[in-house]
Structure formats: C-alpha cells, structure tokens
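Quick illustration for those who missed Monday's session on complexes.
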Amino acid sequence: MPENTTSVITLARFLLGEERRHSHATGAFTNILHDIALAAKMISREVNMAGLVDILGQAGSHNVHGELVQKLDVFANDVLYRALDHTGHIAVLASEESEDPIPIPDKFPVGDYVVLYDPLDGSSNIDVNVSIGTIFSIHRKITHGERGTLEDCLQPGSRQLAAGYVLYGSSTMLVYTTGTGVHGFTLDPSIGEFLLSHPHMTIPDPPTKVYSINEAYYNRWSPAQQRLVQYLKGEGGFGSRYIGSLVADIHRTLLRGGLFMYPGDRLNPLGKLRLLYEGAPMAMIVEQAGGKASDGVRPLLEVQPTSLHQRIPMFLGSAPFVELAERFLAES
Ligand code: AHG
Ligand code: MN
Ligand code: MN
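Prediction with manganese (II) ion bound:
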C-alpha cells in the first residue's frame, strides 16, 4: 500500500458497517440517510449553479415565519419531500417551510420514522454566495395509528434517533450522528459520492476561544447576556466569528471549539432559532462530539416541544464555555 493513502469509504459502505455493528439498526434507517444524501446531492448541484440559472432572488411568497422565501428554499424543500415521501419508511414529515406536519400521501406506504428538516438554512446568505445548509432530525413514531401525527413530531431532542446537517460550502459535507459519535463525509462531485473525510468528529480540547453571536442585537439583550459578551471580548480574551448560517457557525465550532450563541432578547424572548429542526439536531451533534448544548438554563435536548415551530435560545459548543455562559446568565 503506497504511503499516506487513506481508505476510500463511501457513505453507503459506512452506513452498512454501522448497521452491522448495531443490532437494533434496521435497513430502514440506512435507507432514510441514503435518501437524505441523495436530496443533498441535488440541492448541492443547484446551490453551486445558483448564480447561473437565475434561481436567486425572492420567490415572492412568505413562509410561516413571515420571512420572504428564496427560490432555493422552495427547491430544497421540494427535493427533500420527494426523496422521502414514497419510501415506505416515514410516518410523517415536518419542514420549516410547512406550517403543519406533512402527511405521507395515501398512495404511498408508511413506516415508523419521523423526519423533521430545515431544507435550506442560512437563506439570507444564498444570494451572496456564503455557505448555507440543510438540517435534519429523525425520531421514531410514538403514536399507535398507522400514520404519524403532530404528537410524533413533538418529541424532546433526547429521543432523536439521528441528527445531521449538510453544509454547502467550499465543499459539500454531510455530518451526522446516530448516537455513537459524529461522522463527516465530503462530496466528490466528480463521482457523486459522499466519502468519509472526518470519522469520529470530536470538539477540540483545549478549545479555541471564539464566541459567535450577532452583536447587532446587543441593546436588546438582558444585562446578564451583555455582561457575558463584555467578559468574552474583554478579560476572557476571546476572538469572534459569526457567519449567520447556523450550519456554518456550528460546523466551525465543532472543528475548532468555541461558543455559539443565539439568545432570546427583549423583542424575541425565545430568540430566532427553531427547536425541532435547528436546536435539537445541532444539540445532539454537538453533544455527541463531546460538547454541550443549552438553552441558557438547562440541556437543550431535555426541552419538551409544545409546537412545531417553537423557538429556543441556543448556547452550543465547548462544554467549559457553555457552562461559563450558564453561570453568567444565572446572575440576574
Ligand atoms: P433559515 O435560513 O433556515 O431561516 O435560518 C437562518 C438562521 C440561521 O441559519 C442563523 O443562525 C440565523 O438565522 C442568523 O440570524 P440573524 O441574521 O438574526 O443573525
Ligand atoms: Mn435555519
Ligand atoms: Mn431554512
């Protein structure tokens, strides 16, 4: 074997290996991740062509959060739905772009799994060619009817079977966990395969002292949040990085360590990010990589959802930094 060659392991090969290693794993699970990876390749192609095919610009419609929907959002949402709706593994779907849970059409078989997703994360960055992403969260159905319901979607993050994201950046990466570590795959577009590039991703220790937050909202924050950021940038000696795409900011935090924050404030007490398809999946990934995820008071994975699009303050990253944030926020 020539020096410093690494084995070429495709996502498919890796998933099969994982399935064999975990007796509880069923082929259904492997197939769902396959289907999401297929959608990711199709979205990656469109993202990389976006500037050329006039796919940019506002689609004109507004989503449930009152935000202008960009055409790529619509495309990504459609692709994910069409990759999952007919497979027979899904009981119900939920998307950031749909107000209610998305039922599986009667003409298709249903299964035991629930997939919640943010089809295009960081949409404000689409037309300035900054990294964007897709986020997904997988649960098992808990109701007893044949088809899934809203109740199957409203499960705490601690019950996720899997979580992952796709980062459409300088390269396209798929990062996921099924609860036994975090693994990263990089798309080789010349062969259309996700290849294992970051096995067993763990947040670095000692962590890099970087905090990540949108400081434009400083004046809306609580005094405790203001004191925390003043400390970080003062005697704490932290640097600052903020991309404005959750997937990109979390990916950097995973690789370098640091503290990502999207706090609540005077105008939005629960912040902007949604629990079910942004907070919970990212929390599972960060904790599986050895980090910590909090809503500022308690573990983010323990939050019991009460509505599909509910928001949640997020403090994710290196455990010592998340604990530091919680200590500051505990002081009124
Ligand atoms: P989405 O495009 O799915 O609505 O997500 C955008 C989110 C998230 O990607 C990012 O962390 C956050 O918006 C940035 O918000 P601000 O522009 O308020 O900083
Ligand atoms: Mn998002
Ligand atoms: Mn989105």
